[in-house]
Design a protein that fits this description.
Layout (H helix, E strand, L loop, with lengths): L2 H9 L6 E2 L14 H19 L3 E7 L5 H4 L9 H7 L17 H10 L7 E6 L2 E2 L13 H18 L3 E5 L1 H7 L5 E5 L7 H12 L6 H4 L5
Length: 222
């Protein structure tokens, strides 16, 4: 497997009430070549992961409408695109949308921690697309079992291809799913819905002195 083939396989998946950022164009926010930009973003990111040789994933649930739907990168919003190349040398992700850069709270918390690590993880989601409610494209919902089946094989390909040995699950849904890969799994509470404090403490527990002071963890990004 290689980044081009993997992203092409993702782009070929079509599901009802699911926005595939590598194939679908949002007529409200995307540039004309928005899907192509996001494919390029992910290809470059996966190539950087190969070079770094990281064996750890931080795994969320699915793409949100303010984050990965727009950037094509898991747990990453437009406010943090400029930081990607610092943590993942060789990447140069671009905006795929018009207008002001949009921020996402979860991405902000993720990148406060990630930007402090010498060996950053692969950011990924159980469901690497954006599931939304019927007739509400800019809404979030949990993926269903049928949708998960459509991506399960590719998730296993990703784990095996990159030699992943550890998954840090961001939230219970990710922890439940990750247990099926036969690798080490750590659970961290998701920072949304009042979980910010537990998320930060969990990351401090896992990474310890690799992180700077708690003042940095409370950095205001909005």
């Amino acid at each position: 497997m290689n980044p081009h083939k993997f992203v092409a396989a993702l782009a070929n998946i079509r599901l009802k009430n699911v926005f595939n950022p590598y194939a679908d164009r949002c007529t409200t926010h995307d540039l004309v070549d928005g899907p192509a930009v996001r494919r390029s973003n992910l290809q470059g990111y996966l190539a950087a992961i190969e070079t770094l040789g990281t064996d750890t994933i931080w795994m969320g649930r699915d793409l949100g409408y303010r984050g990965g739907r727009r950037t094509g990168l898991a747990l990453t919003d437009e406010r943090h695109l400029s930081k990607v190349s610092c943590s993942y040398p060789g990447t140069s992700p671009n905006r795929a949308t018009r207008g002001p850069a949009v921020a996402e709270r979860t991405a902000a918390e993720i990148w406060v921690i990630l930007s402090q690590l010498e060996c950053p993880p692969l950011l990924w989601n159980v469901f690497p697309f954006h599931p939304h409610k019927v007739n509400e494209p800019l809404s979030n919902r949990r993926f269903n079992a049928r949708e998960l089946v459509a991506v399960n094989d590719l998730n296993h390909v990703l784990i095996n291809w990159l030699g992943i040995r550890r998954i840090i699950s961001i939230g219970r849904d990710a922890a439940t799913y990750a247990s099926g890969f036969g690798v080490e799994v750590e659970y961290i509470r998701h920072p949304s819905y009042g979980g910010v404090g537990d998320f930060r403490l969990g990351m401090q527990r896992l990474y310890g002195n690799k992180l700077r002071t708690t003042q940095v963890l409370q950095e205001i990004l909005f």
